[in-house]
Amino acid sequence: MGKKVLLIEDEPNIIEAVSFILSRDGWEVKTHSNGHDAMEAVRLRGPDLIILDVMLPGKSGFDILAEIRGDLEFAEIPVLMLTARGQMKDREMAEKAGASQYMTKPFSNADVLAAVRDLVGA
Amino acid sequence: MPERLMIGTRIRERRVLSGIRQSELAKQAGISPSYLNLIEHNRRRIGGKTLLKLAQALEVEPQVLSEGAEATLISALREAAGEPGVDGPELSRIEEFAGRFPGWAGLLTDLYRRTQGLERTIETLTDRLAHDPFLADSLHEVISSVTAIRSTSSILVETEALEPEWQARFHRNINEDSARLTEGAQALVKYLEGAPNRDAEVQSPQDEMHAFLAARGYHFEELERDVAGPRDVMRLLKDEAAQAMSTPAQSLTREVLLRYLADARALPLGPFLARVRTIGLRPDRLADATGVEIAQVFRRLAALPEDEVGPVGLVICDASGTLVFRKPIDGFDMPRLAGACALWPLYQVMAQPQVPLRARVRQVGRGGEVVGALAVAGLAAPAGFDRPALMQAHMLLLPDPGEASGGVHELGVSCRICPIKDCVARREPSIIAEGF
């Protein structure tokens, strides 16, 4: 494996837990914790998969996703969106913005692992 | 043909009401009594000339007979009936129902309208709950800590041979997150318990600060003494009531008290009260006489003891329109969470800084009284090359100065609870404008 995942999330303890389970599963995990320069982080890290929180300081996850999809290089990259709100509207917005998959907090570690494996076809 | 048929019933009712005998009406209309009898029992169709003659004789508009006064009632009943179902109301007999039981039919349509109004109100309230920023923040906090706890705890349970360092770290994280979860859940409970009662339960830090100021009557003797200094502000913040506030509320209160101190130094209590007694509650004159900004006079007037100057209200907003300071006055409501009515003089003066404005205003709706509003906008913090000038507007509220001061402008509290119709300043629908 050794695939690279970029986790964009602002809660330090969620970052730590998700990084841990993904690293144990053989992923190379990079993290980024604010919205302002998330796109720069994407370009810098060049990940195989992005896990993106909807509620970020500085910029909404939906806006970041739009930027990612707007960049030719990342137009097809799998993006797993995380949100604290399970409302249909958010789900629709995520789909419209081009999320590959959508997960509601709180999630189980097994679900996250299954989702990322599924998205990268590992 | 129920609608046509019911014309007869209406003719009969009109005739009986007017106290005319059947034979007499028949004679006036130029038809035989037996024919009129058949018409009145809806057994003959009627139209054209006969209808006109009967209407003339009964001294009513022909439409009243042909369509009935209950035309609107019938359309309302149709609306109430909704989509025809198998066991639904007998739509074919709607005219008969409205004609024979106008009172019951009216009651039914009233109930239907009331139900619709209540449904709208519920929708709006639900919507408000869903978009309540405080609630959204608290929930986000709770969900975030739960997510972290769930993920971390399952790592602890499921990972075989977890290194002691990691173990210690995750234990610490869980401990941290559970403390956060507790705080978030408590804030939520406090908020929800406080929600139905506007005044009893404190909500945001701003509310806490205002409750603290209100408990002291917005007047602090400790800061009025000649030797008063920042130390006295710190002392005030150490008292029991201040310590009971949350940290953010304490820091807001400190800012407000420091400003109070600066105002009190610029306009010391004794001399200022003496001037108010000779000049009266005229902020512009007081500003001239003392050489300070009108806004500072406003704040000082609002800080005077009520037994000296009577009720004085004050509201301050920043450039975003957010009310950052509220000292209420009877008969004029100030919203706590939502933005205030854009018609307030407070917002008008933002367009012309340093130009004061005076108006008699009244909030439409329950409990609104005419009050005198004096407003002025000005610089709160100077601009730099890297930041904009920060503006603030002040609005002083005094009891009604009387008709000599001009006409009364009607305005609202906040759009959601405002009954004014066709208002150009409306930014969202009211939950009470429509409905019953």
UniProtKB/TrEMBL annotation, chain A:
Q: Which residues carry this modification: 4-aspartylphosphate?
A: D53
Single annotated GO MF:
DNA binding
Keyword Lipid metabolism listed: no
Listed under GO biological process in this entry are:
phosphorelay signal transduction system
Where does the Response regulatory domain start and stop, copy by copy? 4-120
Q: Which CDD domains match?
A: REC_OmpR
Alphabetically ordered keywords of this record: DNA-binding, Phosphoprotein, Transcription, Transcription regulation, Two-component regulatory system
Keyword check for Mitochondrion, yes or no.
no
Q: Which PANTHER family match?
A: RESPONSE REGULATORY DOMAIN-CONTAINING PROTEIN, STRESS RESPONSE REGULATOR PROTEIN 1
Name under which the protein is recorded: Response regulator receiver domain-containing protein
What is the originating organism of this protein? Roseovarius tolerans
> Lineage in the entry?
Bacteria, Pseudomonadati, Pseudomonadota, Alphaproteobacteria, Rhodobacterales
UniProtKB/TrEMBL annotation, chain B:
> For this UniProt entry, what's an example GO CC term?
cytosol
Keywords from the UniProt entry: DNA-binding, Transcription, Transcription regulation
Q: Which InterPro entries match?
A: Cro/C1-type_HTH, Lambda_DNA-bd_dom_sf, TransReg_Diox_bact_type
In alphabetical order, the GO MF annotations are:
DNA binding; DNA-binding transcription factor activity
Domain of life, source organism: Bacteria
What SMART domains does the record tag this protein with?
HTH_XRE
Q: Which CDD domains match?
A: HTH_XRE (cd00093)
Give one Pfam hit by family name: HTH_3
SUPFAM superfamilies, alphabetically?
A: lambda repressor-like DNA-binding domains
Instruction: Please list the residue ranges annotated as the HTH cro/C1-type domain.
Output: 11-65
**Name this polypeptide is given:** HTH cro/C1-type domain-containing protein
Task: Read off the lineage from the record.
Answer: Bacteria, Pseudomonadati, Pseudomonadota, Alphaproteobacteria, Rhodobacterales
